[in-house]
Amino acid sequence: MYLKKQKSGRYISHTLFFYILKDMFLAYLVTFLFFFFVFFINQFLLIAQEILTKQVPIYQVILLLVYALPQVVALAAPFASLMGTLITVGRLSSDNEILVILASGTSYKMVFLPALVMGLIISMLSFFTNDVLLPAGTIQFQRLYRSILVSTPALEIEANSVKRFRDTVIVTGPVVGTGISNLLILDRTGEGERRLIMAESARLTDSGIEGLSLDLNEAFYLSSRENFRDDYDYASTSFLRYWVVQDDLIQAIHSIGPNQMSSYDLGMEIQEMNIEHLGRLDERYRRVMSNSMGLEESLRAGSSSELWNRRESYLANLIREMQGAITSRNNMRLQIYRTEYYIKFSIPFGALSFVLLSATIGLYAKKSGQTMGFIAGLILSVIFWALLVGGRTIGVNRNFPPMLTMWLPNILALSGGFILLFIRLKR
User: Fold this and answer.
1) CB count, 10 Å around CB of 96?
2) Can you tell me the distance from the alpha carbon of 10 to that of 105, in angstroms, rounded to the nearest whole number?
3) Residue 334 CA to chain centroid, in angstroms?
4) CA–CA gap between residue 161 and residue 51 (Å, rounded)
5) What is the SS3 assignment for 233?
6) How many domains does one find in the chain?
7) Are 143 and 52 contained in the same domain?
8) Same domain, 19 and 106
């Protein structure tokens, strides 16, 4: 039985195909677990430790980590593809198995076929994890964290800290259990009233459906209107109950970012942001045109006209609007969203680029192919990660085209692979 026929060279048998594929799968599995634990420990164990110190039930902490796993899997898979291919092809080359395969009449293309198949599978699985499982896991993570926050209020209100919520700032002293000493609250109501509240001590209580409240002891209260600072009221009391808006606390949880959206939702969000951005730019340009025409008209009218006295005002407004238009063109938030959109494709399908590069490098191994493959894989992984982080930083801060900066590592990997393969075939 044969898989494929070539114009030059023999067929590759099922036995040889699955022999190489099995070796690659085992190498991928080992290297995937290696990168998985590296990313897992780096990103999530510290979070779990912080939550555990707040006496959150262990099963809820485990669930949080489970919901966060898709992000780790999506990052680890491409790097496993790179190192797994290097280790496998390096071993085959150092053990002279590649030489035997070529001596039997099979071409290099048939050696690359199992690697390309495995790389394609990993790319598709990584993309599915990043595009489907990651957004779903993030939603579940947020829901669970909110329920933990309600059941364990001290998770967000810590000792000797400053917490900034939507319209509220809470400054705390020492905290023991749900008791807080030396509390200061600065907030703003929906009616535009600014309030300052101080208390010697307070106790955080969970009132269930009604929300969270701070029971303040020996409290001082000062309030003033936004536009009438001289008109203020103050009072002191031995007890005051301050209701904490649950939505404000939930704002402290990181909202779903562009890297946690699906590619479709992110694309739709970018379209809406782009339309809004273009609308603001058009308004800026309209004001620039209006002020420039007003300036021209005042200059043409001459000093005898009343418009002459408004020329300086037109000029100042024109300069201000032009500066605003230049600043508005570089929309940092839109650039971040565009960059994350291309990352969603460049990282998963980087596995295919890595396969060509790593398989070609592996052909050069003479001895200790697995060891050299592991070392070379680590070096290339660090280089790829540096290019990825550097490209993202340049794309966002320097306003470079995000498609180019995010696909540059893959382009370099493909180019390097083709160059090395061409040199190898010429020998």
Assistant:
1) 11
2) 5
3) 14
4) 17
5) strand
6) 3
7) yes
8) yes
Q: Tell me if 3 is assigned to some domain.
A: no
Q: If pLDDT is split at 50, 70 and 90, which confidence band does 245 have?
A: low
Q: What is the pLDDT of residues 15-61, one digit of tens each?
A: 778 888 888 888 888 888 888 888 887 666 666 666 666 667 777 77
DSSP state of 114: H
Q: Tell me if the pTM is above 0.85.
A: no
Residues 39, 126, single domain; the answer is: yes
Structural contact between residues 119 and 82, judged by C-beta atoms closer than 8 angstroms: no
Say yes or no: 183 and 140 in one domain: no
- Residue 303 structural domain: 258-337
Q: Are 396 and 332 in contact (CB under 8 A)?
A: yes
Domain check: are 102 and 212 in the same one? no
Query: Is 385 found in the same domain as 325?
Result: no
Token pair for 84: 């797994």
With a CB cutoff of 8 Å and minimum separation 6, the contacts of 52 are 58, 61
Query: Which residue among 251, 275, 290 closes a domain?
Result: 251
**In angstroms, what CA-CA distances link 414 with 32, 199, 321, 353, 355?**
22, 64, 46, 5, 9
The reply to whether 31 and 146 lie within a common domain is: yes
| Strand pairing class (162-164; 179-188) | unpaired
The structure tokens 């030489």 sit at 99
Tokens 């489970």 belong to which residue?
66
Nearest to residue 422, comparing CAs of 108, 193, 6?
108
Phi, psi of 158 (to 5 degrees): -105, 170
Q: What is the dihedral of CA 326, 327, 329, 330, to 10 degrees?
A: 130
Reported as a single tens digit per residue, the pLDDT across 342-352 is 888 888 888 88
C-alpha distances in Å from residue 385, one per residue of 257, 315, 390 = 21, 49, 8
* pLDDT value of position 198: 92
**What six digits make up the tokens of 350?**
């980087």
